[in-house]
Specification:
2 helices; 4-stranded mixed sheet; 2,3-Dihydroxybiphenyl 1,2-Dioxygenase, domain 1; about 130 residues; alpha/beta
């Protein structure tokens, strides 16, 4: 089975996105020392539910190497949260907005889709086997 090993957020205003994800989820961002504006993203301990990713300016992301008309639009990542209600309550102050309200995924948990300030879609999942 293939496992996702990295995600990448693209943004026109990386600082705004850093503030959003840091505020809402407590993620840590560290500027890469390479030649491009790129930040490494740490979502938690890799031995647990943490996941490593990156943040790039749209102008220097992979998009610049893809022929016009073939650009990507979104890659939706879903984030586990302890309380979907708390995450949704914190969303407006962090600069995001709800796109799909909280709904049950029977036997799995509670799911909502939100948007960050750069219009990236994020799934929020509160595990709950009794949902539904």
């Amino acid at each position: 089975m293939a496992t996702n090993v990295h995600f990448e957020i693209r943004a026109d205003d990386p600082i705004r996105v850093i503030e959003f994800y840091s505020s809402l989820f407590g993620w840590e961002f560290h500027k890469w020392s390479g030649p491009q504006d790129y930040w490494l993203v740490n979502t938690g301990p890799t031995a647990g539910a943490g996941f490593l990713g990156g943040l790039a300016r749209k102008s220097v992301a992979v998009e610049s190497d893809i022929p016009s008309g073939d650009e990507t639009t979104d890659y939706v990542c879903t984030v586990y949260v302890d309380s979907i209600a708390d995450a949704l309550a914190a969303l407006p102050e962090a600069g995001g907005r709800v796109m799909v309200p909280q709904q049950a995924v029977p036997g799995v948990g509670w799911l909502a889709y939100v948007r960050d300030p750069e219009r990236n879609i994020i799934g929020l999942m509160q595990p709950d086997p009794l949902a539904g």
